[in-house]
Amino acid sequence: MQSDPEHIAISKSKGIHIDWKDGHHSDYGLVYLRDHCPCATCTGSHGTPPRAHESGNPFQMFKAALKINSIEPIGNYAIKIDWSDGHSTGLYSWDHLRKVCPCGECVRA
Ligand SMILES: [Zn+2]
Ligand SMILES: [Zn+2]
Q1: Alpha-carbon dihedral 46, 82, 59, 50, rounded to 10 degrees
Q2: pTM (2 decimals)?
């Protein structure tokens, strides 16, 4: 099913909320969005790498403080998110965002 956003509310420290034209609502937390980055680097060719749980990983504290630096609209079909961890190549199309909608209804479907 395809749909466009009717309204997008962006919080650089919390995440994104999208009201879709078909009446659906999606709430994406920052970490969830970052984990679902659709770029080639993050999706990789080896499948989804397991989350790093090693103690003493210096990147963990940065992960905890993950923020959005800026969001750039790409045409009228996607947004590009510039993350505080330096990653900025992810292009989140409406299609992708709708597909990864974390609400109970979509997760069940
Ligand atoms: Zn990425
Ligand atoms: Zn949903």
Answers
A1: -20
A2: 0.80
Distance 108 CA to ligand 2 centre (A): 9
What percent of the chain has a predicted confidence (pLDDT) above 90?
A: 74
Least Cα distance to 88 among 70, 64, 106, 109 occurs for: 70
Our count of domains for the chain comes to 1
**Which residues have beta carbons under 5 A from ligand 2 (an ion)?**
101, 103, 106
Domain of 31 in residue numbering reads as 5-45+60-108
Q: What is the mean pLDDT of residues 17-43?
A: 96
CATH assignment of the domain containing 72: 3.30.2020.30
Q: How far apart are the CA of 92 and the centre of ligand 1, in A? A: 10
In a domain, 98, yes or no: yes
Quick one: which ligand is closest to 91's CA?
1
Q: Which long-range contacts (CB under 8 A, 24 or more apart) does 4-8 make?
A: 4/76, 4/94, 5/94, 8/79
